[in-house]
Amino acid sequence: MITGKTKLYGIIADPIGHVRAPMLFNPLFAERGVDAVMVPFHVKPEKLKAWADGLRATENFGGIVITVPHKLEIAKLCDELGTAGRLIGAINALRRDPDGRLIGDMFDGKGFVAGMRHQGFEVTGKRILLLGAGGAARAIAFELAAEGCERLTIQNRTMVKAEELAAAVKSAYPKVDVRAGSDDPAGHDTIVNSTSLGLKPGDPLPMDVSRLTPDMLVAEIIMDPVETPLLQAAKQRGCPVHYGRHMLDQQILLLADFLRVGK
Ligand code: ATR
Description:
Blueprint: E1 7-13, H1 21-32, E2 36-42, H2 48-57, E3 61-66, E4 80-81, H3 83-88, E5 93-96, E6 102-105, H4 108-118, E7 127-131, H5 135-146, E8 151-155, H6 159-172, E9 177-180, E10 190-193, E11 217-220, H7 229-236, E12 241-242, H8 245-258
Parallel strand pairs: 1-2, 1-3, 4-6, 7-8, 7-10, 8-9, 10-11, 11-12
Antiparallel strand pairs: 3-5, 5-6
The site of 2'-monophosphoadenosine-5'-diphosphate (ATR) has 13 residues, from helix 5.
């Protein structure tokens, strides 16, 4: 039951109808016996600043989860950013501290790494080929480097984006061997697909799968379908695979911790 003591959480988006965070967080609150609720906020980009001021002013607000199109602009409105949020320039969660300060950070990359570890796959010391250089790739690339992968090769259809991302990651983490390169997986232990290829039926494969060998782990961030054509092809070639849903499963727990759920 929602009472005067219930702590408020939100998800902000435009459009809003598709968001899933309330269905993930409200059961978590119930499971943990926490008096809190997460509701959707439909906010237009031009009203974001006014909305953030309202958030600062609301004493019983715990924080929000952020999705398209607000991830970049809301980062600029925060009083403090975590390392990932600062490097990436975008956030997907924001906590309101009791003094009204807004603290933001990005958890897509952390969720991916935590999901891998939860399944027994390490990223530290690994040579990783990252397919894609969009928003998700950016978060994952910085986190893989932060966790000390040995090599990070970034491949993308639009190669200039891969080059820009590689340069940004290299400048933040000079010890990591970061470069833009081809989709040839030779010399890599792990391949991560962060492109949107595989979401729609009939999408081409994001790489030449005939080059995969059974010592290579192939990881997806696409959750639906569960078995993307890339994962099917990787399995056929004897590769271990890592499913997209693990990133979200672990990210929810990280977000709950960051948002101080139950604290
Ligand atoms: P997200 O926020 O989910 O990462 P995004 O930022 O739009 O979404 O990034 C989508 C990624 O999938 C990009 O790497 C994109 O490549 P481009 O940068 O060249 O656009 C990649 N992608 C999307 N459609 C593709 C296609 N048909 N072939 C190859 N790559 C594609």
